[in-house]
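Below sits our specimen:

——
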Amino acid sequence: MERPTLELPSALDNLQQFVGNGQNSKPVVFLDYDGTLTPIVERPELALLSTAMRDAVDHLASKATVAIISGRDRENVMKLVALKDVFYAGSHGFDISGPHGTRIEFEQDKEFLSLLDEAELLLEKKLKPIDGSQVERKKYAIAVHFRRVNPENFTEVERIVDDVHAGFPALRKTGGKMIHELRPEIDWHKGKAVAWLLEALKLVGPDIIPVYIGDDLTDEDAFFELQDYGVGILVRDESRMTSARYSLENTDEVQEFLEKLSQAL
């Protein structure tokens, strides 16, 4: 069931929903990175985690299972977060690893890598004349950022992405906040990654409370996945329909929520 983002109650005002009743309840917290742990910035390499937010995530990870699920490459988000006691799922969950460098046995077929290589070269060539455009290659995806592009050229950027995409039917086009993205055309997304991780870690049962916090359209798959057995929290910055059940207003409230959840546990 979807509802307007403006109608979502505050997660901070309903903290008990995420703690459960009694000492046997076990929250499992999934966190997006950009727009959730860090504010959205003009260039992805500038989205650096604050010391206070890192401490909040670290403290929570000492009391509950925590996973970062990002559209970024796994190695990139691991470097940015730099915490040993959390799970990392990069490229929308295509590539997953566990605490202290342990590998979780899931990684999608590498046959798509050569296709992404070809598409990346074409996008860089065709978008080069458009000032402010940025092609960011991830292991299992290509993101085209246009936040710094003159709004008059937004349509041209999308036309170029669509033109390149037409030559690669094995890839699919998705979107997000001021980005277009090409990734493998397979049935896998953040929601599937959440479900897979819960099963792989044997974190399934009436005592488990999966919680997912995210801000973008790509996080809606996770919100939808958890509707029946978990809780989605949207970091709200626009009015639209969502499958999340609660909201936080910005990254400052995300940090406050993580700190209060740690205290409650």
About this structure: Helices lie at 16-19, 51-61, 74-81, 112-127, 154-166, 190-200, 220-225, 251-264. The first strand starts at residue 3 and ends at 4.
